[in-house]
Amino acid sequence: MSEAARTYAHFREIFGGDPRIRPGRSRARARGEKGGSEPFAPGRDPKSLGSAIDALTAQLGWTGPLSQQELLSAWPDIAGDEIARHSEPIAIEGGVLQVRCESTAWATQLRLMRDDLLRAILDRHPSAGVDTIRFQGPDAPTWKKGPRSVPGRGPRDTYG
């Protein structure tokens, strides 16, 4: 199922909807339902835009993904400028924040700081759903690419 179809199904589930009603036509009011157009009736006070957006994101189930993206963009504030210069959060999958470091030495140092960083994340972004952090070093070069690559162990065969 495509992303668009899943989003459509999610909206149908939340907002309901009668498939017999065609788009562009207004829905008829139920009989006996009051119009609600009295000027000083309860519930007619204006609400702030922030509270309306918070209510909408909670209703649509977007609080977790929004909090995750906010965490990824706020990495320098959470980890500090020096650590952020040498590391980059990649993704959050299954409660695991994946962070790519510029060297294996930085990855090792950040593994030692994992508890402090996780505590800072849980304090600032509790709804992000991060349970642990995985630090990885840079991608290693591979011998398997290029026009002259050979199957098997390759040039390592001649080293000994």
Describe the structure.
- With 160 residues, this protein is α+β, with helices and mostly antiparallel strands.
- The model is unreliable at 28-33 (pLDDT under 50).
- It is elongated.
- It is built from seven helices and three strands, in the order αααααββααβ.
- The longest helix is centred in the first third of the chain and has 13 residues, at 3-15.
β-strand percent reads 5-15%
Major sheet characteristics: 3 strands, mixed
- Helix- and strand-based class? alpha+beta
> How confident overall, as mean pLDDT?
79
Q: What is the molecular shape?
A: elongated
The H-and-E topology, N to C, reads as HHHHHEEHHE
| Distance, first to last CA | 52 Å
Number of strands: 3
* Low-confidence regions: 28-33
Helix content: 40-55%
Determine Rg (CA atoms, Å): 26 Å
Number of helices: 7
Strand order of the largest sheet: 1-2-3
Overview in brief:
The protein has helices at residues 3-15, 49-60, 63-73, 75-79, 81-86, 104-112, 114-124; strands at residues 87-93, 96-101, 132-136. It has 160 residues and is α+β, with helices and mostly antiparallel strands.
Question: In terms of topology, how is this protein built?
Answer:
Elements: H1 3-15, H2 49-60, H3 63-73, H4 75-79, H5 81-86, E1 87-93, E2 96-101, H6 104-112, H7 114-124, E3 132-136
Parallel strand pairs: 2-3
Antiparallel strand pairs: 1-2
List the defining traits of the structure above.
160 residues, alpha+beta, three-stranded mixed beta sheet, elongated
